[in-house]
Amino acid sequence: MALAAGVLAALVAVAVIVVPLLLPPGPRPPFQLPVACGETWRLGTYPGHDDYDVDLFPTEGEAWGRPVLASYAGEVTVAGINGSLGARTPDDPNGPRGRGGGYWVKIDHGGRWETQYLHLLETPLVRAGQRVAQGEQIGRVGSTGNSGAPHLHYEQRRGWQKVETHFDGAPSGITHDDREYTVKLTSNNCAPR
């Protein structure tokens, strides 16, 4: 009897984990640019960057230390180091590169949608398990990991697949990395929602 109860409990646990993963993703959340309201940023990609990866650079002022905001509400699933940090800082912008994404944050937005924010300047301002509101600051722009200059590397994912980023209900146009491509967008991420 105890063995049967144990097997049943294990099957229920597996079903609770596996069944949601088999369901199709929900509708795309209304993502906003992950930067301060009213600021215009250049979004771009380049050959070898990987499809759908977006790098964000401000069109005015210094990139170092700019606030990075949650592009939609959700639960932080990762807040830490991806790869190694390197030693690029505002005081030594040409210091050695690290590997991977450096300081980063991943947020689960429900419906199998998530966003990722990489190359942050320092330890993220949030922790795994924390709920964040849209527009809440989660870190600051930096150049940790394998980064050549201060910027925010950003991704939207549906299930385990990277997809074209949408902001304010419109596609960014950054899809393939077969050529360099840039657009300028102004943030409407104006208040925590």
From TrEMBL:
UniProt key word Signal: yes
UniProt keyword annotations, A-Z: Signal
Coiled coil: none
Tagged with keyword Protein biosynthesis: no
Domain annotation M23ase beta-sheet core: ranges: 65-163
InterPro entries: Cell_wall_metabolism_enzyme, Dup_hybrid_motif, M23ase_b-sheet_dom
Matching SUPFAM superfamilies: Duplicated hybrid motif (SSF51261)
MF annotations from Gene Ontology: metalloendopeptidase activity
Protein name per Swiss-Prot or TrEMBL: Peptidase family M23
Provenance organism: Micromonospora halophytica
